[in-house]
Design a protein that fits this description.
90 residues; Aminopeptidase
Amino acid sequence: MLQRPQLPRVDLGFACLPAFRQQGFAYEAAAAVLADARHRLHLEDVGALSSPDNERSIALSGRLGFDFVETRQFPGQAQLTNIYLHKLVP
């Protein structure tokens, strides 16, 4: 997790080398981090970012319980970024 100065909350990031993709590692690791964020850090929500064309990242965000919020272009960046939110507490 990382607190970016341009975002109001921490966000969860994940990446895997090609040899380790589609084996469930990113899901298991991210789910564990989200559980820690809720139970130990007592965070109310966590964000996530992805490129609009990164279908695997978008699908994983959905499986983890993230909801799409918006697509935004951050200052100084040419590409668009999808922003997601996962509410950890009801």
